[in-house]
Amino acid sequence: MCEPRKYDPTFKGPTQHRGCTDIVCCIFFILAILAYFAVGILAWSQGDPRKVIYPTDSRGQFCGQAGTPLEKKPLLFYFNIMKCASPMVLLEFQCPTTQMCVEKCPDRFMTLVKAYTNSKDFNYYKTFCKDGMSSSMSIPDILRQGLCPAMLTPSKPFTRRCFPALGKQDGVITVGNTSHFDDGSGNMRDAKDLASLCRNATVVIEARQVVMKIFEDYTQSWYWILIGLVIAMLLSLLFIVLLRFLAGIMVWIMVALVIIVIGYGIFHCYMEYAALKGEPGADVTLQDLGFQADFTVYLQIRQTWLAFMIILAIVEVIIILLLIFLRKRLLIAIALIKEASRAIGYVMCSLFYPLFTFLLLAVVIAYWAVTAVFLSTSNEPVYKVFNDSDCEHSRKTCDPANFSTSLMKGQCPDSECLFAFYGGETVYHKYLIGLQFYNVFLFLWCANFVTALGQMTLAGAFASYYWAFVKPDDMPSFPIFSSLGRSLRYHTGTLAFGSLILSTIQIIRVLLEYLDHKLKGAQNKCARFVLCCLKCCFWCLEKFVKFLNRNAYIMTAIYGKNFCTSARDAFFLLMRNMIRVAVLDKVTDFLLFLGKLLIVGLVGVFAFFFFSGRVKAFEDTAPNLHYYWVPILTVVIGSYLIAHGFFSVYSMCVDTLFLCFCEDLERNDGSAARPYYMSPTLRQILWKEETLTRRDEDVRLRPEDAAAV
Predict the structure, then answer these.
(1) CA-based nearest residue to 247, from 685, 696, 694
(2) Which 3 state secondary structure label does DSSP give 163?
(3) What residue spans define the domains of the chain?
(4) Where is the signal peptide (predicted)?
(5) Closest by CA position to 84, among listed 207, 174, 203, 192
(6) Rounded distance, CA 510 to CA 513, Å?
(7) Distance CA 176, CA 152 (A)
(8) What are phi and psi of 268, to 5 degrees?
(9) Residue 205: other Cβ atoms inside 10 A
(10) How far apart (Å, rounded) are the C-alpha atoms in residues 230 and 638?
(11) What is the DSSP string of 334-355?
C-alpha cells in the first residue's frame, strides 16, 4: 500500500508551479476532435434531413418541400394500395406501386371507367394522375402507361401518407361507409381486405405512430415543460442558497418533506386503487393487458396503482430504516454539510458553474444529434424495377433517367423504375455504420470530458479554500477561474485520459445492450446468461471507474500529477480511511440524494396535477395531449438532471473537503509546529466520528474484552 505523505512546510494548497500531464492523451484527444469535425463536415455535405421530414414519391422528389413545385402537395398517394400487402413492403420499406405527391387525399370511391364518362368527375380524378394524361387517351392506354390509378379509395392522411379511411359499423369493417367496393377491374372487394393490407403496409411505420403523437405532444406543451424546468432550477437554487445559511434546519426539513411527499404518493395510489373497484375492466392484470401504445390505459387498471403503491411503500420503509440506523451518523454528516456551506460561501460563483457545464453539454449533444441525423440521411436514392408480370429484372436496380429506352424496359414492357429506398454502394456508404459508431463514441468521450472538467475545476476551487490557513486572505481572488485555467492549461490530457477510459466502458455497454436486443429471440440460454453477467460486470466497472476518476481529478487539482499517479494516490488514501468514507462521505451523499428526490417529487406532483387535468383550475390552461405522461416524464427527468447539476456542487465540495481532510490528518498532527488546516468545526466532526466509531467497536466486543479494554 502506498505510504502516506509526510509533513511538508512548503505545501500551501493546490500546486501553482506544475507541468502538463498526460501529453500523449492530450494530443490524441485533439486529433480525435479534429477527426470528429471532419466527420461532421462530411455528413453535412452528404446528408439531407429532408429525407426524414418529407415523404418521397416515385421520382425521388420530396412532397411538401418549400420552394419546390410540390410545396402545396404535402401528401403521398399510392396508385394501387392493394399492392402494399406484398412482403416486399417489409423488406424495402416501399410499396411496389407508383406514388405521387397530392394536395389532398381522395375523399370518395371512384373508378377510372366511371370518371371517364363524366367531365366533372374526370377533372377531379386527374388530380391523382401523372402529368401527360389527357381525356383524348383511351382507358387501356392510360392504365398501360401507368398514368392513373384504376380506382380511388376514401383515404385519410397518416404520417403524411394517404391510407384508406377504415371504420366500423355494427362490428363490420367499412371504408367510406361501405363494406364492399369496386377495385377498378370490375371485381367487388371486401373492406376487410383493405384492413388486412393496410396493416401490412403500415407495419414499418406503425412504430412511428406513437413517436409522432409524442412529437405532437411536445409541440403543444414545450413551453409548459420549460416553465416546469425553470421552476425546478429555481427550487434547486433556492434550496442550495438556504442550505448555505441554514444547513442543519434545511436538512431536517428536507428529510421530513421527502417522507411526506412519498407518503402522499402512497395515499394517492391507494385512493386511485380504491376508486377503480367495481369499474368494468379495471381488474384485468397487466400480463393479460400486454403492451399498449397508449400508456393511459394502464392507469385504468387497479393492478397498476397497486404496483405503484407497493414500490413507494418499499422506498418509504427503506428511507425510514436508513434514517433510524444512521441517526447518529446524520448529525456528523450535517456538520460536514455545514462546513461545505462555508466553503461555498467563499466560492459563491461555484453555484452557477453547473450552468456552464449545461451549456457545454448542450453543445456536445446538439453536435452529436445533428451529425447523427445528417449521417443517417446521407444515403442516395435507390430505384428498382417493379412490375405486375414475371420479369427476370424484377427488383433490380435501375436508372429512371434512361429506363424507358433500356433493355429492362424492352424485355418487361409493363415494368416501372420506381424509388425504393435510400442506400448506396460507394466507399463512403460502406463505412457509414463506422462513422455512426465514431459519432457515438466521440459523443460519450466529449460528454465525459465536459463532466470531468467541471469536477476538476470545482475540486481545485474548494481545495484552495481548505488549504488556505487564513481564509479568505490566502485564497485566490477568483478560485473558480483560477482552477478552470489550471485544468485546461495543464491537465487537458489527464481529463481526456480519464474520460477515455470511462467512454470505452460505456461503448462496450452499448454494444452489449445491442447484442442483448438481437439475442432476445434466441434459445441459447447459456449465451443469454453470459451476456447478462457481462452487462452486470461492466455496469459495476463503470460505477467504480466513475468513483475513481472523480477522486483522481481531486488529487490532480491539488498536486498537479498525471492521471495514473493521482488515481493511485486517491485509491490508497481512501483505503487508509475506509471507515471514514462510509461514515462521512456516503452518508452525506445520501442526504444530498434526498434533496434531489425532494425537488423531483415536488415538481413531479405539480406536473402531474397540471397536465392530467385533475385540478379544475388548470383544466382550461393545460394543453390537450395524446399522452399527458409525456411532458410529466420529461419534466421529472429534466428536474432530476437540473437538481443533480446544482447538488453536484455540494457533492464535489464534500468529496474535496473529505480528501483534503484525510490528507491533513496524515500530514499534520495539530501541534504548533504542524497545525491542522481544517477548521475547528471539522476538528469537532473528527472527534465525534472517532468517538462514535470507538463506541461501536466497544459494543461489538464481548463484555470481558470490553472490560479489559
Answers:
(1) 685
(2) strand
(3) 23-41+209-373+431-695
(4) none
(5) 203
(6) 5
(7) 11
(8) -65, -40
(9) 15
(10) 10
(11) HHHHHHHHHHHHHSGGGGGHHH
Report CA 301 to chain centroid distance, whole Å: 28
In 3D space, the residue among 384, 422, 379 whose CA is nearest the CA of residue 86 turns out to be: 384
| pTM of the predicted structure, to 2 decimals | 0.71
With a CB cutoff of 8 Å and minimum separation 6, the contacts of 342 are: 679, 681
Contacts of 124 (CB under 8 A, 6+ apart): 110, 115
| Residue 215 CB neighbour total at 10 angstroms | 13
Query: Grid coordinates representing 354?
Result: 453547473
**Helices marked H in 347-478 — which ranges?**
353-376, 407-411, 427-430, 432-466
Distances in Å between the alpha carbon of 376 and those of 90, 207, 369, 518?
19, 18, 11, 21
Report CA-CA distances (Å) from 547 to 322, 497, 543, 561, 570: 22, 15, 6, 18, 10
Q: Is the peptide bond before 472 cis (omega within 30 degrees of 0)?
A: yes
DSSP state of 62: B
Q: What would you report as the CA-atom Rg of the chain, rounded to the nearest whole angstrom? A: 33
Please tell me the distance from the alpha carbon of residue 701 to that of residue 709, in angstroms, as a whole number: 9
Which residue, 118, 117, 149, is CA-closest to 133?
149
Task: Give the position of cell 390537450.
Answer: 624
